[in-house]
Amino acid sequence: MDLIERLKSAEQNTAGMFEIDEDTICALVDTLEAKAKDISQLKSDLKLANDRYENRTPTQWAYDQACAAIEKHRNRADDAEKKLSELESSE
């Protein structure tokens, strides 16, 4: 009988407490301790992943691409301002 079945089959005494044998209690404690270790490991893994995400730096390629895009848009804005200025002065 597995742990869940043993817990389900426990009977209540007159005080409203469940009568659970020592082996079932030990199995329950072992299960809970194992789950606590699993949770602790998951929290640690999550913290490491979060730290990697927060402390990441762009690659040189990504930095160069961002700079190129900024320069492209800056040149387009400069050209647009120049054309606008030419249009306004020709009026």
Task: Describe this entry's structure for a reader.
This protein has 91 residues and is mainly alpha-helical. The chain has two domains: 1-56; 57-91. Helix content is 77%, strand content 4%. The chain contains three helices and two strands; from the N terminus they run αββαα. The chain has helices spanning 3-8, 22-54, 60-90; strands spanning 11-12, 18-19. The chain has a two-stranded antiparallel ribbon.
State the low-pLDDT regions, or none: none
Distance between the termini: 94 Å
Rg from Cα: 34 Å
Return the average pLDDT rounded to an integer: 89
List the strand order in the largest sheet.
1-2
**Element-by-element helix/strand order:** HEEHH
Largest sheet: 2 strands, antiparallel
User: How many structural domains can be distinguished in the coordinates?
Assistant: 2
Task: Tell me the helix content.
Answer: over 70%
Structural class: mainly alpha
The count of strands amounts to 2
Question: In one word, what is the shape?
Answer: rod-shaped
Beta-strand residue percentage: under 5%
**How many H/I helical runs?**
3
